[in-house]
């Protein structure tokens, strides 16, 4: 730990001075700063009165976007981190741009720093002047960096501004290192100011003020910290980049001139660099015994220093220890900040913040009581305390984070300042004071004011978003809400509840009234409101409140009841019932509870009534009471349920619905004339339940099945009746559908439902057509009384077709025709229509031209295509094209066998599988399979495929395209050569010869193009195996040679020449490969070894050229070895390769053309006689040959040892092999392969066996005619008469197999 020597000296004249100094001069009224603030600690300046107003009251009127953003954001205000999102944080700030400031500041070179106060702000400029503005953009005073008019004005940028404790003195530090102090109480002048030499208009009304003290001690140094001593006006502590921390003491000399003395109070080690320092604010708590605290941050230590009553280090921390839990590295950014009440201090290094809790005991051992750290995601530029709880953090990306120091540095607000284009560096052009943010931007001076809680609430109320206003208050009431003071709320929870209780209660009632006045008042809004009120009022400590208002949950519920009228009271009771059922409301008053059952009766909520009765009372209603209740409150659903379930009457509800639809509600038995129209629509719901065999509205099956079927037939008997029915039966009263009985249509009830809502009726029929009841019935049948006892789908379709003819509405006709078409196609085994009827159906479908029905129309027509044949196909196609019914055309072309049109339509589609549900490849395969190769349509398809070839290749891929083109017409293969993509051509031809290898024999052009593309486009990894496997019969090998030579692909050339058995050229190509490897930038021993193995293998197989190839191989390697352009490690590789070659040469079994046992020496001699080798240096060649022969001797000794071991170990194997040879080889054929006569097996001459035994015994048994019966069988199992072999020109001493040229006989 570094120990500091602290010295400080005060002037006796200034230490306790209150008279005879600058401080005694009377302030000028109206010219002084009213208040000056450091953080949130406001002090009075002079005698001017302060203005009690909101922080943004004296600013320009905010734009409308502020209120819009605050009220339009849909909140999910569920926790205290709601404002952490940037959008929500920004909604708390009201930004104002003071447009005239920059026009005034520009004359002074532009702003460089800012010091804000409650009513004024001070701007430092790049030319040295300090400008004091009020918030109405009036320039109050200009502070000039000169002692008097005689002194030259300093033209240097202002870097730091500090204010004395009482706000009457101000100091500024400059980039030049100068420091000036001004007495703001002195008289100002309005003379012309030199800085305005180039101004357009004189500003004679602007007051200017000269400095009273000029400190030059830090000249040419970068000042990084400055502050007044408490209760002193001319005493400063200043720190700079030269690591000096200096106390400057202003005093008057004997001539009463103000001067100063300077004393360095801290000595730093040579390797220690001072980053910044900061004086603490004056203590508000009298318990603090120290008036002057100084924090210092260097690259090694963080120090807190007390300057009074005597210098003393209170705390010191080594940064290397402090950074133990953070990322090590250089320090790029740093800052210090004292809390407003001096109870905490924070400093930051790069991304990490260190926070210390301080005690009021200013002693080294007791001063720091807590220490915490937190690391953020990006580097931190500066720290600013907003209040004792909230710390502001400005990051390098211009994000202003407000963190809660009472938690683990939880980010409460995140304000994006990047959008405001701050001047650089941002920490010098940003300040926070009195709940306001001050920004110096590229385009203007901006002030962002935090709105109050009432502003937030009122803004949402004005926008009509009462619920959001209440949600905000709910958020504010949370004990963990961290920013109450920013929003002008009491920090104490109970005081905050007292502050918000009555506003919340009154606003909740106002919200209730507002929601009910709105036309869109609904259950959701009322439920949200009441549940929110329940939550909030339960959280209040109501017993502790001093409010005179009697506030409770029941009082709210009863008072809110007064706002509801007969039209809206239902919403309220519905909300209350749900909250009771869910357990949110524990109790309600008796009047509210009494009316709940009546309410749910009035809104037809039988299930809710039943549920409430179960919850609140275990007794159930009797039938008479239930029916009376349902009729009294028009509970039609419950009444229908009772009528069906208890009385087993399913017709009366249907008849009542028909009366309602016919406008004859007086005839209703269950319903009365007050029933609203919306109830009429329930007829389809009711019919759907009953006709599907479900109890209405329980959705459970009607049992037993016989009863279910009977009820269905009774309903169908009404709906499908051709005439009016009598109901009740025996009453003589007919159920009419129109007022004039003469106008009653046939099938009146079906007509009535079709005219009322054809869409719902057809939807109903779609569902009931799935009923298995229609599967059992085979035909329509009625009993003697006209009651339907059997019913099928065909009858209903025929009935609908008859009605279709009478309809006048084109839309309804189209909808009905669509239904018929879909069901004819869906149930072909049950519904059958003639082609003429289908023609009429399709014509009716096409009556409707709007886009909304287009899709269903197309689906319907497409469904009947398999069973429909248009009278005029061309006209039909034209109509479908005009409607863009491609799905219909796709199906029609397929079923009408118009394969060319079908293919054209499919190829023009972006995706047949998405548009038509069929992959394109399947469509084209089917088209080709169905097309006659000799037809005109086939020719048109070939032409179409030629035109669309590139599209087909890119869509289907080459593999599928090859098979497709080959199936259609093999001439298409050649047309592939016309497409521009060579790689696509090569891939296509690759697949073509893979699937159809014989195709190349019939089309030499295709094959030549395939070879050319393969040699040009394939890489060696694919090219070499291709050459090895490719059939070179009838191939222009010379062209391949030219193609490969032009690309210097000698490895591929070697493979080609090897396949052609041109072993000499093979060796030449491989030597070029080896030579290029050694002469390349980086040789690969593995690649060279591979080429060498191939070359040795080629030499062994070279036959008559074997000696020449061996000589060529060894000579070339020696020349490479002696090449001066290759590196030493490459020479070593070459040496090893030569040793390998010689060893392999010595072990090679030479051919008959070789020089017998002298083959090795013959090759060596030829190598040494080669002119290229003769020219080599003898000493190099001697060393090389020495290494080769050494390796050869070692290899020979090893071979001899292995041979001896093998000879001794395999003696028995050799003897066994010899015995087997005496037995002879087995024969493959029993006939001579020359003359065709029998040489073995049944029917051969007995002499053959005799001669075989003679040979086995090695003795003569029989000699007469032996030459005609002797045979030779080779190891390859081919057999011949020896006489026949001799006739073919072979010697009787050495026979060869005529087929295999083998000698093993």
UniProtKB/TrEMBL annotation:
A family per Pfam: Beta-prop_VPS8
GO biological process terms, semicolon-separated:
endosomal vesicle fusion; late endosome to vacuole transport via multivesicular body sorting pathway; plasma membrane organization; protein targeting to vacuole; regulation of vacuole fusion, non-autophagic; vesicle tethering
InterPro entries the UniProt entry points to: Vps41/Vps8, Vps8_central_dom, WD40/YVTN_repeat-like_dom_sf, WD40_repeat_dom_sf
Q: Which GO terms describe its molecular function?
A: GTPase binding; protein-membrane adaptor activity
> What start-end ranges are recorded for coiled-coil regions in this protein?
none
> Mind telling me which GO cellular component terms the entry cites?
CORVET complex; early endosome membrane; HOPS complex; late endosome
Give start and end of each Vacuolar protein sorting-associated protein 8 central domain: 571-769
This protein's source sits in the domain of life called: Eukaryota
Q: Which family is it part of?
A: Belongs to the VPS8 family.
State the name under which the record lists this protein. Vacuolar protein sorting-associated protein 8 central domain-containing protein
Which organism encodes this protein?
Naumovozyma castellii (Yeast)
């Amino acid at each position: 730990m570094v120990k500091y020597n602290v010295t400080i000296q005060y002037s006796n004249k200034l230490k306790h001075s209150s008279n005879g100094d600058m401080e005694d001069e009377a302030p000028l009224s109206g010219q002084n700063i009213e208040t000056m603030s450091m953080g949130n600690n406001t002090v009075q300046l002079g005698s001017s009165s302060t203005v009690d107003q909101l922080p943004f009251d004296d600013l320009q009127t905010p734009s409308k976007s502020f209120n819009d953003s605050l009220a339009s954001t849909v909140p999910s205000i569920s926790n205290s981190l709601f404002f952490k999102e940037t959008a929500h944080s920004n909604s708390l700030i009201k930004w104002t741009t003071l447009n005239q400031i920059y026009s005034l500041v520009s004359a002074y070179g532009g702003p460089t720093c800012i010091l804000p106060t409650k009513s004024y702000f001070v701007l430092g400029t790049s030319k040295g002047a300090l400008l004091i503005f009020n918030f109405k953009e009036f320039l109050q005073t200009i502070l000039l960096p000169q002692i008097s008019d005689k002194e030259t004005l300093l033209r240097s940028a202002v870097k730091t501004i500090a204010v004395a404790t009482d706000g009457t003195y101000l100091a500024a530090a400059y980039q030049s290192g100068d420091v000036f102090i001004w007495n703001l109480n002195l008289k100002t002048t309005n003379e012309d100011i030199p800085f305005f030499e180039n101004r357009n208009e004189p500003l004679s009304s602007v007051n200017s003020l000269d400095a009273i003290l000029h400190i030059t001690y830090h000249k040419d140094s970068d000042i990084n910290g400055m502050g007044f001593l408490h209760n002193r006006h001319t005493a400063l502590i200043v720190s700079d980049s030269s690591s000096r921390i200096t106390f400057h003491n202003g005093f008057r000399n004997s001539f009463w001139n103000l001067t100063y003395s300077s004393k360095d109070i801290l000595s730093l080690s040579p390797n220690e660099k001072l980053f910044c320092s900061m004086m603490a604010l004056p203590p508000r708590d009298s318990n603090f015994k120290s008036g002057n605290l100084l924090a210092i941050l260097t690259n090694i230590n963080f120090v807190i220093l007390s300057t009074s009553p005597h210098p003393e280090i209170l705390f010191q921390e080594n940064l290397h220890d402090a950074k133990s839990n953070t990322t090590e590295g250089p320090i790029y950014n740093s800052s210090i900040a004292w809390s407003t009440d001096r109870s905490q201090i924070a400093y930051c290094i790069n991304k990490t913040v260190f926070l210390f809790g301080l005690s009021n005991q200013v002693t080294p051992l007791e001063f720091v009581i807590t220490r915490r750290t937190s690391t953020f995601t990006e580097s931190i530029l500066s720290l600013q305390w907003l209040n004792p709880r909230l710390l502001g953090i400005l990051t390098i990306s211009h994000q202003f984070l407000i963190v809660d120091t009472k938690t683990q540095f939880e980010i409460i607000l995140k304000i994006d300042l990047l959008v405001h284009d701050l001047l650089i560096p941002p920490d010098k052009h940003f300040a926070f004071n009195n709940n306001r943010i001050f920004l110096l931007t590229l385009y203007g001076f901006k002030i962002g004011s935090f709105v109050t809680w009432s502003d937030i609430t009122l803004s949402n109320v004005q926008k009509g978003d009462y619920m959001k206003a209440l949600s905000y208050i709910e958020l504010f009431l949370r004990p963990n809400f961290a920013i109450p003071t920013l929003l002008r709320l009491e920090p104490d929870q109970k005081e905050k509840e007292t502050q918000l209780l009555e506003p919340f209660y009154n606003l909740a009632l106002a919200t209730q009234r507002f929601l009910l006045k709105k036309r869109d008042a609904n259950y959701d809004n009322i439920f949200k409101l009441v549940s929110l009120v329940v939550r909030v009022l339960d959280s209040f400590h109501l017993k502790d409140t001093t409010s005179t208002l009697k506030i409770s949950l029941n009082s709210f519920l009863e008072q809110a009841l007064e706002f509801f009228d007969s039209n809206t009271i239902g919403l309220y009771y519905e909300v209350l019932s749900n909250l009771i059922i869910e357990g949110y409301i524990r109790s309600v008053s008796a009047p509210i509870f009494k009316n709940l059952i009546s309410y749910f009766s009035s809104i037809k909520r039988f299930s809710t009534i039943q549920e409430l009765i179960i919850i609140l009372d275990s007794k159930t209603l009797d039938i008479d009471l239930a029916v009376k209740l349902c009729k009294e409150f028009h509970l039609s659903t419950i009444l229908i349920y009772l009528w069906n379930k208890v009385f087993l009457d399913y017709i009366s509800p249907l008849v009542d619905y028909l009366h309602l639809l016919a406008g004859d509600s007086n005839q209703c038995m269950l319903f009365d004339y007050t029933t609203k129209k919306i109830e009429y629509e329930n007829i389809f719901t009711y019919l759907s339940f009953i006709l599907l065999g479900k109890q209405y509205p329980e959705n459970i099956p009607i049992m037993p099945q016989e009863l279910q079927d009977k009820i269905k037939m009774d309903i169908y008997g009404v709906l499908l009746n051709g005439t009016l029915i009598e109901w009740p039966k025996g009453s003589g009263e007919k159920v009419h559908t129109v007022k004039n009985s003469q106008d009653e249509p046939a099938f009146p009830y079906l007509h009535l439902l079709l005219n009322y809502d054809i869409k719902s009726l057809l939807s109903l029929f779609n569902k009931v057509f799935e009923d298995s009841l229609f599967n059992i019935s085979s035909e329509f049948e009625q009993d003697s009384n006209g009651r339907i006892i059997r019913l099928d789908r065909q009858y209903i379709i025929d009935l609908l077709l008859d009605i279709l003819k009478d309809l006048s509405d084109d839309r309804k006709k189209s909808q009905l025709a669509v239904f018929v078409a879909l069901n004819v196609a869906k149930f072909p085994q049950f519904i059958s229509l003639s082609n003429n009827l289908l023609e009429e159906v399709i014509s009716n479908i096409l009556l409707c031209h709007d886009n909304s029905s287009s899709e269903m129309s197309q689906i319907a027509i497409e469904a009947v295509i398999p069973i429909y044949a248009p009278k005029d196909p061309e006209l039909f196609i034209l109509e479908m094209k005009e409607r863009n019914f491609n799905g219909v055309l796709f199906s029609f072309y397929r079923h009408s066998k118009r394969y060319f049109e079908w293919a054209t339509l499919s190829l023009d589609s972006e995706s047949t599988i998405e548009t038509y549900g069929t992959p394109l490849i399947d469509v084209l395969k089917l088209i080709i399979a169905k097309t006659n190769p000799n037809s005109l349509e086939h020719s048109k398809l070939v032409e179409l495929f030629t035109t669309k070839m590139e599209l087909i290749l890119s869509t289907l891929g080459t593999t599928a395209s090859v098979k497709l083109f080959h199936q259609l017409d093999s001439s298409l293969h050649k047309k592939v050569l016309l497409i521009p993509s060579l790689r696509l051509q090569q891939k296509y031809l690759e697949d073509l010869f893979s699937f159809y290898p014989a195709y190349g024999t019939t089309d030499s052009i295709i094959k030549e193009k395939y070879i050319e593309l393969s040699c040009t486009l394939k890489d060696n990894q694919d090219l070499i195996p291709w050459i090895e496997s490719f059939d070179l019969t009838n191939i222009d090998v010379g062209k391949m040679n030219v193609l490969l030579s032009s690309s210097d692909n000698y490895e591929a050339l070697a493979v080609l020449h090897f396949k052609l058995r041109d072993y000499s050229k093979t060796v030449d190509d491989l030597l070029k490969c080896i030579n290029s490897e050694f002469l390349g930038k980086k040789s690969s021993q593995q690649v060279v070894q591979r080429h060498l193995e191939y070359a040795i293998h080629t030499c062994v197989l070279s036959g008559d050229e074997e000696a020449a190839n061996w000589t060529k191989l060894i000579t070339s390697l020696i020349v490479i070895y002696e090449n001066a352009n290759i590196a030493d490690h490459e020479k070593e590789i070459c040496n090893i390769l030569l040793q390998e070659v010689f060893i392999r040469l010595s072990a090679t079994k030479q051919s008959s053309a070789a020089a017998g046992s002298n083959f090795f020496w013959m090759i060596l001699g030829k190598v040494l006689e080669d002119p290229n080798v003769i020219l080599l240096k003898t000493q190099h060649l001697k060393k090389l040959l020495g290494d080769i022969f050494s390796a050869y001797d070692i290899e020979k000794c090893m071979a001899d040892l292995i041979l001896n071991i093998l000879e001794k170990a395999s003696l028995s194997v050799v003897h066994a092999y010899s015995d087997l040879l005496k037995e002879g080889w087995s024969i493959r054929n029993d006939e001579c392969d020359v003359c065709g006569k029998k040489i073995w097996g049944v029917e051969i001459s007995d002499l053959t066996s005799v001669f075989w035994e003679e040979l086995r015994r090695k003795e003569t048994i029989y000699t007469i005619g032996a030459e005609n019966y002797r045979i030779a069988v080779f190891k390859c199992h081919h057999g011949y008469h020896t006489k026949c072999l001799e006739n073919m020109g072979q010697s009787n001493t050495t026979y060869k197999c005529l087929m295999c040229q083998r000698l093993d006989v």
